[in-house]
User: Fold these one by one.
Assistant:
Number 1:
Amino acid sequence: MSKFLPLWPDRASTVAGQVDALYIYLVLVSAVMTLLIFIAVAVLAIKYRRRPGVLPHPIEGSPFLEITWSVIPFGVMLTFFIWGAVIFFKERTPPTNSTEVYVVAKQWMWKIEHMEGQREINELHVPTGQNVKLIMTSQDVIHSFFIPAFRLKQDVVPGRYNTLWFKATSPGIYHLFCAEYCGTSHSGMIGNVVVMEPQDYAQWMAGGPSVPLPEAGKQLFASLGCATCHRFDLQGRGPNLQGAFGKPVLLEDGRTVMADDNYVRESILNPTAKIVAGFKPVMPTFQGLVTDEQLNALVAYVKSLAQQPAGGAQNQADASTAGQPQTKQVQ
Ligand SMILES: [Cu+2]
C-alpha cells in the first residue's frame, strides 16, 4: 500500500510501528469525533428547525446527558495520553545491555564516536537487532537528532548529555536530519544512518585502526594529571573512581546523586558543583581545556572503571602508576 500511497516513511526500528499505530489511532478517533459532531449538527438543525405555527418548549438541560458527553470524550482523550506515555517511557529508558555511541553535534555536522574507536562524520553505522544508546552533546548551539525511519528525535544541547536509544530492525540507509534550526547551513546538517546485518557490521567495525574510546580516555586521564589525585587506593585527594560509575554518590551537603554520564561530565567541567562526602573542593576546572570529544573519552574511561570493584588495588602504593590500573583482569 505504501507504494501507491506513500503515507508512512520506512519503518526501521522497533518503536516505529508503535508510533505509527498511535498516530493512526489519533487520526481515526479525530475522524470519528468530527463525524459525530457534524451528524449531530445536521440532525439537530433539522429536528429543531422553525416550523410555522409550532412553538418550541424551553429545554431545562439534562445532567445525565451533560455528564455523559463530558466523561466519555474525557476517557477517549485519556487513551491518547496513556498510550503516548507508554511509548514515551519505552523510548526514554535505554535497556542496560545497549551498545553506547557518542554523538557530538556542531555547526553543521554530526560527529560520531563508537566505543570501539571508530569515528564517523554525518554517518552512523549500526547493526540490526542490537540496542544502541546514543549519548549526545553539542559543541555550540541546540541541534536535534532526527531519524524519521526510526520515529525518533532528540534535542542535542550544549553543556550536557542527552540520550536516545533504538533497536534497528531492517538493513538499509536512512535519513538523519538536524531538526532544530541551528544557523545558516542548518539544512545541510544531514547524514545517513546505515543499518547493517550484524556480520556486516562486525566487518565494518574491524576495518581501520582505532584506539577504543576508554583507552583514549585512559591516556588523557594520565596526561592531564587526573591520576595524581584520583588514585585507585583510598589515599587520593580525589575520590577513587574504580567501580564508581552507575552508583549513587553521597555528597558533602548530604544529597545523593547518581554517577551517570552527566555527573562525570559536570565533575570535570565544574568540579565544585557536587563535592563527594569526605573530600575537599580542591579540583581545578577543566572547562576550556578539554574538547567535547576528549570529555567523551574521559567519561568512557571512568565508565570502563565501573567494571572494577572499588578499592580493588588497595595495596597499590605508587600514585604515579594509577593511570594504569592493575586490576584489568577483573571483569
Ligand atoms: Cu543543527
Number 2:
Amino acid sequence: MTQTWKIYGIRYTVQPSRPAHMTFMFGDPNEETGGLDYYSWVLVSNDRAIVVDTGAAEHKVRKLGRTWLQAPTTALKTLGVDPANVEDVILSHAHWDHVGDLKAYPKAKFYMNDLEMESITGPDMSYHVLREPYHGDEAAEIVGLCYEDRLTFLQGDGTFAPGVDYTLIGGHSAGQLALTVATDRGPVVLATDAIHFWQEVEQERAFLIFHDLRQMLAGYRKMNAMVGGDICRLLPGHDPLVKERYPVVERHADGSPFILDLSAAPTSW
Ligand SMILES: [Zn+2]
C-alpha cells in the first residue's frame, strides 16, 4: 500500500488587493484579483515531516508592503513539528517569498532543482526583470548551503520519498518544481508557484512573472493533465480561494485561516 501524506498549507502573509494588470499578462486595471495569499507547506506522514518552501523573512514582507500574519515556524510547532529537528526542506524555486528564514532549520538538508541554481548564480541574474523576484542575500545563503554539503540538486523528475514525486515544470522560474503527493484522497499535485491561481489553468491566463512564458503555459496544461482535469487535486501557490475551499486546522487571532488541510477533500468549490 502506498504511503500517504497530509499536506498542510501555512498561510503566513497576505497582499489584500492587487489589480489584474499587476497579476496577469494583459490584465484589466479595473479588475480586482482578490489579492495574494502567501504559503509555506509541510508534508507529514507517520513521524516524518518534509517542509516545502520556508516562506519569506518577516522584515522583507514588511519592507515590500505585504501584511505579515504569523511565522510558518509557529504553524509547524502547532502541528507538532519542531523546525530545529526538520531533516528535509524542498525549495520549489528560490523567489524571495519561498526561501526566507532558512536558518530556522539548522539540521535540515535542502533540495532544489539544478536549473534553478544555475539561474540564480549565472547570467540570468544580469537581467533585472529576471532578478527582481530573487534576493542576492538569499542566493548567497543557498550557495553557502551547497558549500556545507547541505544542498542536494533534484534533476528532472523523480521520487523524493515514498508517495512524494517531483516534476520539473520550469516556466515561472527556470527550475520551478511541482510535487505529486499521495494522500488519502488520491494523488494531489502541489504546484506551488507553477500555478499561482486556479484561473491560470482554467483560462490559460498567464501570470505576470516568468522566466519562460511558453514553458509556463505548457506547464499549466501539463499539470492539468497530471490530475486528469480534476483541478481540486491541483494546489496553486497564492490563490486566495485556497482558504475558502479546504478545511481549516488553525486560525490567526483575526479569525482568518492560518493552517489548512490540503490533503483533505475540498469543503466547498
Ligand atoms: Zn510565490
